[in-house]
Amino acid sequence: MCSRNDEEDGSQSLMEGKTKLTWTEVCQKCSTEKPVIQILQIKHAYCRNCFLAHVNHKFRSTLGKSKMMKPSDVVLAAFSGSGKSNAMLHLLHAGLSEQSHKRFLFKVQVLYIDEGAILGTSLEDRTANLQAISGIIEQYGFKSYYTTLASIFEETGSKCFPLVKDSTLKIKENSEEELKNLFLNVKSLTAREDLLRQLRRKIFLQSAKELDCCKVFTANTSTDLAIHILTDVSLGRGSQMHHDVSFCDPRDASVKIIRPLLELSSKEVTYYSVFHELESIYIPSLCTKASSDSSIHNMSKQFVMELMENFPSTVSTVFRTGEKLGSTNTTNTCETEDNLCIICQMKLDVSVAACSSVQATDFSRLISSLGPAGFDNKTLSQLPDTSKDSDVQCGCHKDVQRLSFPDVEKLCCYGCRLIIHDMENTSSLPESILHKVRTRRSLENMRESIQDFLL
């Protein structure tokens, strides 16, 4: 394209590159101590004490300016054993220990979710991790609990157990096998990671309700959320971005998910842990030892980290942009249960209008599934319009208990549909999800049966 100014190369509109910092003799904050770390997009050098005060102030101001925390609140802090989650507990403990009037007044409980079943970790190693995590939490004096990822398959009974010294891991073999079958049923690593993320959220909510907590704290930094933004856009969850990366996720009416570390980068949290000598426990994940191109999340992470080397403001730019984006209807307060996704609880944003991209994708998938035989006139036969004979496979009569892919798919948002498409069958889904499908299908059939009798 032609430019109004031939000498203009557009460089002014590009993101600012990395500039070499000349270290000063003293901290730019207190002007007395020697600087030890560069922060704020590598523009300022802080000493140890000023840096720790800076992180603590950011954490407290993030909670304070939201005006969502009440003295009567009971918060469930998610703890994974990582340095980020330990730093969050340390910041919470410091805020609760303040002697001034600005001390946190809410109560804190801690939850650890054991995910060893999907990783093939032995019961001995899982128990050792559980006891090590118990030792870390015990330092802060918080009441702590643990649950397993397989608890999503349990319909009755308590799912959270007290986490104390020398705790032993309580598991149910049937639930563990169902969880393993579910993840073996999902083909790609991208879909597995997305499914794990949704299951974690469900367990956070169910555990918070069981323990009478109104809010859940997660240790997501701005770096993590910037990666989630690119991943969400790639997976067709752009309309959900506001809930996935903002300070508060209000999807559930009774429990809110809060991200108190979203103003801090991973670098700041890491140095905070180093300066306070906080412990961390290495627990493998689904993407451990996986290549950078093995999943969309890994590719997004590599893309952001490589950009950060030369453009330190990458995370801030992506995160701030994603935080401001949202659909025209960003809340689910006015949405009925029938209009929400059965997996992520977001609004069903799938349009089936003529000539839409979703319709074209569905049609292409239908053609691929039918194959050449699906369009061979010799293999087609005339079937009655309606039939309840099980031997006549016209498809108009379905078993009430049997759920097909279309039955589950039409009750999912676009992002969760990609998970369903990557599964070999839907029978391995948790019963809580399948129950919602059966209930909605029964209500839909009931509406159709009485449609002609309504005025």
TrEMBL record:
Keyword terms, alphabetized: Cytoplasm, tRNA processing
Specify where it is mainly localized: cytoplasm
This protein's pathway reads: tRNA modification; 5-methoxycarbonylmethyl-2-thiouridine-tRNA biosynthesis
Q: Which domain of life is it from?
A: Eukaryota
Instruction: Please provide an example of a Pfam family that matches this protein in its UniProt record.
Output: CTU2
Its Gene Ontology biological processes? protein urmylation; tRNA wobble position uridine thiolation
Where is the protein found, in the record's own terms? Cytoplasm
Kindly indicate whether the keyword Zinc belongs to this entry: no
PANTHER family from the UniProt entry = CYTOPLASMIC TRNA 2-THIOLATION PROTEIN 2 (PTHR20882)
Q: What does this protein do?
A: Plays a central role in 2-thiolation of mcm(5)S(2)U at tRNA wobble positions of tRNA(Lys), tRNA(Glu) and tRNA(Gln). May act by forming a heterodimer with NCS6/CTU1 that ligates sulfur from thiocarboxylated URM1 onto the uridine of tRNAs at wobble position.
* Protein name as it appears in the record: Cytoplasmic tRNA 2-thiolation protein 2
